[in-house]
């Protein structure tokens, strides 16, 4: 970690012990995740077209999550740990948009891949609708970031939940029409998707709804899009208080750990004989 700090000097951060511990953990995760991706690149079974596409998409996700781990932010509150231009809300959200679309493409790709193994061409075609949910969600996310309206952030999270629900349904069809490791992986994916949907609907959406109601109660004025874009580029609110971060840490931590590990692991799924993306 000291060598990384030497290569990427950071301003002095004033924060309480809990926040500093969490931030150190995020940076350690970033190093671990890059190492895991490089390990899979050099030693993993990445010689089939599916794995190569997964690895490329995962590489984007891993790097963006590493960047966001070093410079954490909460978009609408303009909250940052490190008060530097690299913590720009606009810059971070732009990188996150690209990374999340890459991850969504991986989700569609893995369903396409497993459906090919199960001999279900209609599921393969339906798999490409999965990333549509997450891509549309980005527009709602940007609206909330630029206007400071949390209601569209709740819509964004709901769209992610809808996309994962549709993915779980397609994996269920695959599980019913396959066997061996394909069936096992489809069932595992169903369970993982169900856990994610439950988390989003019980934690994320209610959190954003509460913030929307609090904004209305305090008379929060929403910004026009062009003013919001400038504000997102320029304004940063540094806070070293764990109390200000702990609610968002509940989703940022699994995002930068479990989400990244799943992204990397997808590159290790066998393509199967004669199965090609398309």
TrEMBL record:
Entry keyword set: Membrane, Transmembrane, Transmembrane helix
Transmembrane annotation, as ranges: 26-44, 50-70, 90-114, 126-146, 158-176, 182-201, 255-276
Designated name of the protein: Uncharacterized protein
Native organism: Roseateles terrae
């Amino acid at each position: 970690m000291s060598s990384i700090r030497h290569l990427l000097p950071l301003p002095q951060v004033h924060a309480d012990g809990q926040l500093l511990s969490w931030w150190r953990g995020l940076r350690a995760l970033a190093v671990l995740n890059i190492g895991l991706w490089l390990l899979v690149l050099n030693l993993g079974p990445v010689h089939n077209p599916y794995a190569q596409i997964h690895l490329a998409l995962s590489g984007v996700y891993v790097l963006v999550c590493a960047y966001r781990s070093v410079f954490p932010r909460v978009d609408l509150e303009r909250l940052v740990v490190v008060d530097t231009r690299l913590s720009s809300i606009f810059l971070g959200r732009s990188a996150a948009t690209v990374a999340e679309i890459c991850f969504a493409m991986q989700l569609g790709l893995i369903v396409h891949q497993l459906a090919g193994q199960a001999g279900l061409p209609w599921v393969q075609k339906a798999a490409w609708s999965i990333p549509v949910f997450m891509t549309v969600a980005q527009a709602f996310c940007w609206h909330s970031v630029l206007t400071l309206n949390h209601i569209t952030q709740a819509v964004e999270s709901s769209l992610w939940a809808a996309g994962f629900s549709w993915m779980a349904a397609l994996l269920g069809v695959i599980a019913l029409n396959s066997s061996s490791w394909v069936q096992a992986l489809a069932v595992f994916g169903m369970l993982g998707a169900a856990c994610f949907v439950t988390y989003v609907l019980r934690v994320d959406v209610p959190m954003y709804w509460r913030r929307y109601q609090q904004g209305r109660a305090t008379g929060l004025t929403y910004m026009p899009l062009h003013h919001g874009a400038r504000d997102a580029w320029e304004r940063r609110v540094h806070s070293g208080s764990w109390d200000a971060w702990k609610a968002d840490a509940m989703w940022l931590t699994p995002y930068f750990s479990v989400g990244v590990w799943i992204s990397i692991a997808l590159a290790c799924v066998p393509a199967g004989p004669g199965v090609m993306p398309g």
